[in-house]
């Protein structure tokens, strides 16, 4: 069997599924602009990249992305025939013209994020102004997704909250299944230790507050975390803060003054640099050890896509303090398997962090329940079974979209 994954920057969310299928005898190909990780036994169909000019309209850009992907698919079909199935991320337009190339091939879409001008990530900040130009840009971004969904046979969204953003008219096509969390790699370890850049070694015996994001920016609540951290540091002379994440911008906007959020927040809060340890972007093995030695792990997010980091921290038995926002409602029941806090309220966050530090044994059941949440709902093998089952049913002509 032959499958083609379509993603702007592979392997993305398809990494586990692609490796699983390759290991079970499938011929797996990736159609992408760039491959961030090389996977053994998986072929790369690299499409030509033409960076958009600053003045390129969103609609035109997504159309060009879709045409390039379609051209690459067409060349593949002419050379070796159609694949048995195509599974692609619909966010950038890459799947817009897939049906025009493959009229009889089953097509699955990955539905990560549908844009809204209010009520989700855009307009969440009370100081944000959402002018007409921004609203029209968001609608044009969604055009590519709707054009793709219209001809797909089925689609998958990783969480119920993310699915709920898409128009109701397409919900019958969209099943819910996460990419999966490796609970054997991400697991509690009471003997874990982490060596800081200065050589100091931290363990579960230390009072450690952890924070992880791809990049340190407002979308993931970094300013709120920093204001809470300085309040807690003044009250508790023994607490240490361990922060993993880069200084770029993954979501949101670059600061107009060009400064890094880390530098801005250190200057603004006056937090003692000896109390906070910025690790940058670290390896996955190091991340796991960070989760394992954490006294309380902070995960704040705009109403946006749910991060793997929150789920992996829970799999490691971390005591999660998460923002009271839509994505976190999918995984956290307050005081059952973690704690929820107002995204903007740094005083409340500082109080909750202090509460966790002082009540480690009393709150042990939250750690256990967090682990159970991931084992029951997000365990990698179960997620792979569900995705593989859908793919096999579709190849066999038995499409069951919403029942993923």
Automatic annotation (TrEMBL):
GO terms for biological process: lipopolysaccharide biosynthetic process. GO terms for molecular function: glycosyltransferase activity. The keyword Cell membrane does not apply. It comes from the Bacteria. This is Glycosyl transferase. InterPro entries: Glyco_trans_1 (IPR001296), Glyco_trans_4 (IPR022623). SUPFAM superfamilies: UDP-Glycosyltransferase/glycogen phosphorylase. Pfam families: Glyco_trans_4_3, Glycos_transf_1. The keyword Transferase applies. It comes from Thalassospira profundimaris. Residues 25-185, 205-372 form the Glycosyl transferase family domain. Keywords: Transferase.
């Amino acid at each position: 069997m032959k499958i083609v994954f379509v993603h702007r920057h592979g392997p993305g969310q398809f990494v586990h599924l692609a490796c699983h299928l390759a290991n079970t005898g499938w011929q797996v190909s990736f159609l992408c602009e760039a491959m961030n990780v090389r996977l053994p036994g998986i072929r790369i169909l690299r499409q030509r990249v033409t960076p958009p000019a600053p003045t390129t309209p969103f609609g035109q850009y997504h159309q060009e992305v879709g045409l390039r992907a379609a051209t690459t698919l067409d060349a593949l079909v002419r050379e070796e025939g159609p694949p048995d199935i195509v599974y692609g991320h619909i966010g950038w337009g890459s799947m817009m013209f897939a049906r025009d190339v493959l009229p009889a091939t089953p097509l699955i879409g990955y539905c990560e994020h549908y844009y809204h001008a209010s009520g989700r990530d855009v307009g969440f900040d009370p100081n944000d102004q959402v002018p007409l130009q921004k609203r029209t840009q968001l609608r044009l971004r969604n055009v590519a997704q709707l054009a793709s969904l219209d001809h797909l046979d089925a689609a998958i969204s990783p969480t119920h909250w993310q699915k709920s953003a898409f128009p109701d008219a397409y919900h019958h096509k969209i099943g819910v299944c996460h990419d999966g969390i490796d609970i054997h790699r991400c697991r509690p370890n009471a003997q874990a230790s982490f060596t800081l850049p200065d050589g100091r070694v931290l363990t579960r015996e230390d009072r450690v507050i952890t924070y992880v994001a791809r990049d340190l920016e407002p979308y993931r609540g970094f300013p709120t975390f920093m204001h809470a951290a300085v309040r807690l540091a003044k009250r508790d002379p023994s607490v240490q803060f361990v922060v993993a994440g880069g200084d770029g911008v993954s979501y949101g906007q670059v600061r107009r003054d060009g400064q890094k959020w880390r530098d801005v927040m250190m200057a603004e809060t006056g937090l003692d640099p000896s109390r906070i340890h910025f690790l940058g972007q670290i390896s996955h093995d190091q991340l796991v050890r960070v989760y394992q030695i954490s006294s309380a792990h902070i995960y704040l997010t705009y109403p946006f896509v749910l991060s793997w980091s929150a789920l992996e921290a829970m799999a490691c038995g971390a005591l999660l303090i998460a923002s009271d926002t839509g994505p976190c409602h999918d995984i956290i029941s307050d005081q059952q398997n973690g704690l929820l806090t107002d995204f903007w309220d740094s005083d409340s966050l500082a109080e909750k962090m202090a509460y966790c530090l002082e009540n480690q044994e009393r709150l042990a059941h939250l750690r256990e329940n967090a682990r159970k949440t991931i084992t029951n709902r997000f365990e990698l093998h179960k997620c792979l079974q569900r995705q593989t089952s859908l793919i096999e049913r579709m190849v066999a002509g038995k499409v069951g979209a919403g029942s993923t």
